[in-house]
Fold these 4 entries.
Entry 1:
Amino acid sequence: MRWFIAALLAAAPASAEIATPEACAAAIAADPAAAREDAAVWTRNGGGVPARLCEAAALEAMGATATAARLLTALATNPNRAMSPGLRAVTLVDGARLWLEAGAPDLATAALDQAARLAPDEREIAILRASIAAADGDWPAAIAALDARLATAPDDAAARALRAAALRRSGDPAAAMAEADRALAEAPGLPEALFEAAAARAELGDEAGAEALWLELIAAHPDHSLATPARRNLQALR
């Protein structure tokens, strides 16, 4: 939902009587289904782009990722909508992320292609292209997409952590460990980097090092999506 709220703040009209971006965020946190209904009313009453973005954010919070992705893609590609190229690109990127989560990598790629024409330097585009390739098990393509990103932003720790995962999955745990360690040097405590640094060490036979890093991940980020596989891996080590 991070892109939606930023987009809402950028695009909201000065005097929204039915809803505001802040009210949208609060309503979604309280009750996503009710927020979606309120956002639909806002749309019918002329809320425009911010209201539609609010609807999409509520749908995502409800778990309706494909519906939210469809709404965002249609919104961003509608020439009759008053949206800046940057806002269209951000909306398409978030749509692509949701298409990928919904299991539609082809639609995610199509949305990213459109976003790239509007904002070719968008960071999330490279990350999502790598994620799409990784979902298909195409590790060389994932690495290539991340190499392109890191060539212009070598301090992007998230991209390095994802590259470490791709290197490990492609059979090079030593390179993966070096990449994950560099990501941790740039962003200490980054969950993805902690996980990959541990996984690479486990594959290289350093069980003590792997255990320490997985324990650090679980202690610092107990509710993160990677905490569960970290716990499973710890059980397997023991």
Entry 2:
Amino acid sequence: MLGKLSITNGTSLRVHTYTAPELGWYVNSHTIELPDKLIVIDAQYTLSFANEVVSYASTLRKPISRLYLTHYHPDHILGAAGFHVPIYALVEVARKIEAVGDRVAREEHEKLGDIIPTKAERPERIVSPGDEIIDGVRFQFIELQHAETEHALMIGLPDEKILITQDLLYDRVHVFIGEKAFDSWDEALDRTVALPFDRYLPGHGDPGGKELFASMKSYLSVAKREHTAASNGEAFKQSMIAAFPDFRVQALLAHELRFLFPS
């Protein structure tokens, strides 16, 4: 297996986090192991890494019953073709994937070839914010607005005090800030850290505790300052590498430059 696995244990369930290697931008797919079934959160960037998630899930000897796509970015949705299960998303996320998903898939396919599909899978089921009992476990679906992107889904397991934040949080991975929502993202961090959770599963990098919020706030503060100061994309990229020399996936810095410095 090329990816990395970590397990978050609850009292009545486990969450298996698959973190892709550098080529897959250290993106996380979280498999929630319920008594009789599995729920997967996000589908990976490439089909090859999605297949690793599916292969690992098969060792748990329970069926995957749902795949949730938390937002429309390519590293979270393009592996969905490897799952063959019902796909769930917020209505706004489903509309965004319908509108731009195929274009995003073609762009990434041109970069990496056949490990990326040429079209994006469409969510078939709409999830609404609120609580739902699945296989006897309480899920809390939380709509996140104006952070990394305009609309995204977070999934809480309130009885376990576990929150799957996805790209509200990163851990020691360069952050995609292409939508430049520095202030509203910072406010979303403040709102979320006040919720009654104490274990957090981010979109990129390792699971952790509340220290992930301070790290994200620091990164966003530096990124906002350096974006304002930079005369061009390369200058910004180099300033962020210098500020966070141990952070992984410099490819994310390159990916966001066309949004940050459109010419």
Entry 3:
Amino acid sequence: MILRLRPSAASQIALFLKEAPQVTPHMKEVRNANLDYRRNYYIQKRISDQRKWYSTKAAWNRRREALWFAVAWLLELLAAIAAITVVILQNSLIDPVGIISAAGAGVLFWLNARSYKEPAESYGVVANELELQRNYAINVDTEQKLSRLVLDTEGIMNREQKIWLARL
């Protein structure tokens, strides 16, 4: 899917490919296993793994947003302190207020341009949806339900990938 949307990525991916089959013996082994084993394997190796990844990315983006917001406020506070100091010490040779205010504005611009909030929310939603899928998966007891689970779960992640590619 990604290769169709971004053909230029194929050349980068090709750098890491080895001369190995795309369907490994382990994949064939899992595919030939019984329903319970495949369901549990999918829950553990795909749903839980991806939920952890999306949760981690959501938390990382939330922390970055909070960090840059705090830096911006700190710079604005320093600008206010500098302004008061300049007023009190009227004979000051330097006036750092403009420099500090410009730095604070730059940080706010960076925060808005980088937009950590949107990815944090998006990744958080996907992590939550994957947790719902994991809860549903525990009760999967037929081949048809397992197929539906896989299609729905992969669809959730595919949708997020499309949104991510649109941001590029």
Entry 4:
Amino acid sequence: MNMEISFEKYQGAGNDFIMIDNRNGDFLSHQQVLIANMCNRQMGIGADGLIELVSDQGDIPRMIYYNADGLEGSLCGNGARCFSLFIKRLGLLEKQSAFKASDGIHDVLFLPDGEISIAFKEPIIIEAGDDHFVIDTGSPHYVKWVGNLLLDVFSEGRKIRYNESYQAKGINVNFAMVRNDEIHLRTYERGVENETLACGTGVVAAAIAAFLSGKIKKDTIKVIAKGGTLHVSFKYKNSSFTDVWLTGPAKRVFSGIYFGDSEN
């Protein structure tokens, strides 16, 4: 079936997303091939993922995130900031409000400098090793400490993402280096199955790992990804993290109409 799909394109620190306003239900969501084709950089619009705004009970907007492979994913931090800007433009958010994602409700704060802060749930520490952490920040992340970032992120990331421990559900793999109380980060993302310019939930995971390992002792941490700079702030007391916020840029890039076929 031929279709015309209106969309907007956003990016946050180089992580780019297709935005669909599907409150009227016209977009045929949960179609893996369609969404993957839209995200394809050669044959479609091109994006790291697609985010759908859907109607929900109550007044809180709800986002559904799909990876570039067309499968529904978990929380996307950079996507959440872009989604917040998207729904603000639609008149659904004020200066400070909230939206619903796969892991529940998240508060949003629009800062005077144009950046956007997203509140995170308390991270779950799954594993703490000598050279790595496994942390769930709304999405699962493997944070590996490295001496430099001149490495093949695609090859090294795939080795971890597809090993026996993580192959079934997948995991995002972050290579992190601390210098001058700042984290420098490169990330291999599941679903995209390649390196991306930034990963918001990975930035939060790296900041939490750096604090727990004693590499950084501050509760506001600057993280430099390939696509831009983000900040993570939190409170830590009684072995618990609260008030976890991710702050960074989001930008509307362009809008258009996608011409494609549904799977039916």
